[in-house]
Structures are given as structure tokens and as C-alpha cells.
Amino acid sequence: MSVNRPNPVSVGTIVWLASELMFFAGLFAMYFTVRSVMPAEEWAAETAKLNLTFAAINTTVLVLSSVTCQMGVLAAERFQPVRTGKIFQVGRWGMHEWMTLTYVMGAIFIGGQVFEYAELVHEGVTISSSAYGSVFYLTTGFHGLHVIGGLIAFLFLLGRSFAARRFGHHEATTAIVTSYYWHFVDVVWIALFAVIYFLQ
């Protein structure tokens, strides 16, 4: 009788993500605390400057990147690092193609966030302009840093895969734990988007 032990890398990643969840819970608590003490008229004047349509499009890009990331994981689990057909035969893509697309979509999201920041600064919303500006930039900014961390992880994943003589369990495990982090970042953003742009 054999005992199947859980993968220590996966377990470690999940435990670390649990600590990250506590960090973001603190940011949410800060956001709601400031919202409860800030005058309603002043808060409404600040939230009116948000571009909901643009943020929704940017959010869609990030959410869809979770789908492409998972497709990359499925390719990694069947030990297929590269495509087996032409570039436009998406159904035959390997992990490299799917994870590269995920990286590009994540980079587009960050670019969109930088553009949004520039627009808000032009509107007079800065980190020091008001309490709202402070909590907006802190919550979305820390999330953006986590997305950048995910993009670095994808570069590490792809570099390790290209360097490997043979794509095996170690490379597949790296893809899986990277996807855990990326899905976590996406779920946190969905919550942030709902709170900041819809509840306002």
C-alpha cells in the first residue's frame, strides 16, 4: 500500500497565498474604513472620475488571461512544452505558447493600469490629493505589483522550460504553482474591481 504525499511545492505555494490573502484583506479593511469616515459628497466626486468602461475592458483582459494560463497548465500536465502544429492551430499549442500569451495579456493589463493612473492624475486624483486617492492607489498599486511579480514568474517558468533538456515533472510543477499565483491575483482583482468601480 503506497501513500500519496502532497507536493511540497504546491502546499508551500498555497500557504504563502493564504498569507497574501491576509495582506489584501488588510487593504480592503483600509478602503472601507476610509469610505466610512469620508464625507459622502467628497467620495462621490472622486469616484465620478473613474472610467468604468475602460476598467471593465482591462479587467476582461486579465480574467481571460486566467483561461489562457490554465490552458498552459493543461499542456504542461501532458508534458507538451511547444506546439505540435502551425501557430494558428490553437488547439495544438503547447505550454510555451499559452504562457507567452498569458504574459502578454498581463502586460497589457499593467499598461492599461498605468494609462488609467495618468488619466486620473490629469483629473487631479493623486495619492496625496485626498484620502480617496490614497486608498485607491494603495489598493490598486499593490495589486499591480503582484501582477508584475506574476509576469516575472512567467519569465522564470519559460526560461526554466527552455533550459531543460527534457520537459518533465519539475517543469510541469513550476507551471502549476505559477498558475495558482496568477489565478489568485485575478480573483483578488475581481473583488477590487467590484468594490472600487461598482460599489464606489
UniProtKB/TrEMBL annotation:
Residues 1-200 form the Heme-copper oxidase subunit III family profile domain. Its EC number is 7.1.1.9. It is found in: Cell membrane. Keywords: Cell membrane, Membrane, Translocase, Transmembrane, Transmembrane helix. GO terms for cellular component: plasma membrane. It is a multi-pass membrane protein. GO terms for biological process: aerobic electron transport chain. It holds the Pfam family COX3. One of its GO terms (molecular function) is cytochrome-c oxidase activity. Gene3D superfamilies: Cytochrome c oxidase, subunit III, four-helix bundle (1.20.120.80). The chain crosses the membrane at residues 12-32, 52-76, 97-115, 135-159, 180-199. It catalyses: 4 Fe(II)-[cytochrome c] + O2 + 8 H(+)(in) = 4 Fe(III)-[cytochrome c] + 2 H2O + 4 H(+)(out). Belongs to the cytochrome c oxidase subunit 3 family. This is cytochrome-c oxidase. It comes from Xylanimonas oleitrophica.
